[in-house]
From TrEMBL:
Species per Swiss-Prot/TrEMBL record: Kibdelosporangium persicum
PROSITE patterns: FAD_PCMH
Matches recorded under PANTHER family: OXIDOREDUCTASE, XANTHINE DEHYDROGENASE SUBUNIT C-RELATED
UniProt-recorded name of the protein: Xanthine dehydrogenase YagS FAD-binding subunit
Gene3D superfamilies: 3.30.465.10, CO dehydrogenase flavoprotein, C-terminal domain, Uridine Diphospho-n-acetylenolpyruvylglucosamine Reductase, domain 2
C-alpha cells in the first residue's frame, strides 16, 4: 500500500468539495489499495456524515452509510433485498460494508486485481486478459471486445429489479438517477463503470413503493454456500392475482457486466398463469443475446434454471 493522506470531512458539502477518494466501510477500497489497484493520494473518511436511516413509510429510503447487516434485518425491507444482502460476503463484512459502497464496489475479476496482468478496466488500452484466459466466472451479457468482467453486487440486482434510484450529491448540487441507468456496459471504455461524476457521493437509495414486492425473493447459485460470488443469480418480485401474473420484476446477476434487468422475461410473464410451465416459458428468453466464453458456456442454461427457481420460490 502506498502512502496517503487521511481526512474526515464534517459535512456532505465539505466532502464533495474536497478532492479525494471516499472511505466508508472500506471493505473494497482497502483491499484494492493493498493490491495497488487503487492508489489514492487522499482518502476522505465519510463515516461521520449524516447519511444514515431507513424509512419505510412510503416505499423505502436507505441512507448510503447504513450497514448491509442492519438493512437486511430491518422488518420493513422487501424480502428480495434482505435475501440478496444476507447472501453477500460474510457476516463480518456485512457488519462493516455500507450500502453506498456496495453499489460502487469494483469487479472481482482476478485480472483486474492483478496489476501484473493487462486489464482495460484498470489500465485503458492494455487489453482484456480474461477473454482468452480463465473466464469461468465472467460475463455472457453486456460484454464487449474490451471487457467481460461481471458486476459483483448482489443487492444491486435486487434494486435494479425494483426500479430503485440513487441520490447523488456533488459540488453543483444533488441529482437522482435510476440505478439501472447509472451502471454502464463496458463498450470501448470499460474503465468508465458508472455515471458517477468527479467528486459526487451517493447519499441515499430510494426504492419506489411496490406493495406486491412483499412476494419476492433472491436466488444465488455459487460454488460454495457462503462468502462466494454468484455464477448466476435472479431477483424476482411477482404480482399474482387470482392465480394470474399481473406484473413482474426480474433481474439477473453473476452473468453480466452490470445488474441485468430481464425485461423480456417480465413481458413473457404478464397475463400468464402462475405455473411452472409459464415460468419455464418466460425463462427461455433470459439468456437471449448471450456471448459465452471458453470456460463459461454453462451460464446461459444456468441462468435460465436460476430464473425458474426464483420464480417458483417468489410465487409462494
Amino acid at each position: 500500500m502506498r502512502p496517503f493522506e487521511l481526512t474526515a470531512p464534517e459535512s456532505v458539502a465539505d466532502a464533495v468539495a474536497s478532492p479525494g477518494t471516499f472511505l466508508a466501510g472500506g471493505t473494497t477500497l482497502v483491499d484494492l489499495m493493498k493490491l495497488n489497484v487503487m492508489t489514492p493520494q487522499r482518502v476522505l473518511d465519510i463515516n461521520a456524515l449524516p447519511l444514515r436511516g431507513i424509512d419505510t413509510s412510503d416505499g423505502l429510503r436507505i441512507g448510503a452509510l447504513e450497514r448491509m447487516s442492519d438493512i437486511a434485518a430491518h422488518p420493513g425491507v422487501y424480502p428480495v433485498i434482505s435475501r440478496a444482502l444476507l447472501q453477500s460476503a460474510s457476516q463480518q463484512l456485512r457488519n462493516m460494508a455500507s450500502i453506498g459502497g456496495n453499489l460502487l464496489q469494483r469487479t472481482r475479476c482476478g485480472y483486474f486485481r492483478d496489476v501484473n496482468m493487462p486489464c482495460n478496466k484498470r489500465q485503458p488500452g492494455s487489453g482484456c486478459s480474461a477473454i482468452n484466459g480463465v473466464n469461468r466466472m465472467h460475463a455472457i451479457l453486456g460484454t464487449s471486445d474490451s471487457c467481460v468482467a461481471t458486476h459483483a453486487s448482489d443487492v444491486a440486482v435486487a434494486f435494479v429489479a425494483l426500479d430503485a434510484e440513487i441520490t447523488l450529491a456533488g459540488a453543483s448540487g444533488t441529482r437522482t438517477v435510476k440505478l439501472d441507468d447509472f451502471y454502464r456496459v463496458p463498450g470501448d471504455t470499460p474503465d468508465v463503470e458508472n455515471d458517477l461524476r468527479p467528486g459526487e457521493l451517493i447519499t441515499e437509495v430510494v426504492v419506489p413503493r411496490l406493495d406486491w414486492a412483499r412476494r419476492s425473493t433472491y436466488v444465488k447459485v455459487r460454488d460454495r454456500q457462503s462468502y462466494e460470488f454468484a455464477l448466476a443469480s435472479a431477483a424476482v418480485a411477482l404480482d399474482i392475482q387470482d392465480g394470474q401474473i399481473a406484473d413482474a420484476r426480474v433481474a439477473a446477476g453473476g452473468v453480466a457486466t452490470k445488474p441485468w434487468r430481464l425485461t423480456a422475461v417480465e413481458e413473457a410473464l404478464r397475463g400468464r398463469p402462475a405455473t411452472t410451465q409459464s415460468f419455464e416459458d418466460a425463462a427461455s428468453v433470459a439468456a437471449d443475446g448471450a456471448k459465452p466464453l471458453s470456460h463459461n458456456s454453462f451460464k446461459p442454461a444456468l441462468l435460465r434454471r436460476t430464473v425458474v427457481r426464483a420464480l417458483i420460490e417468489g410465487s409462494r
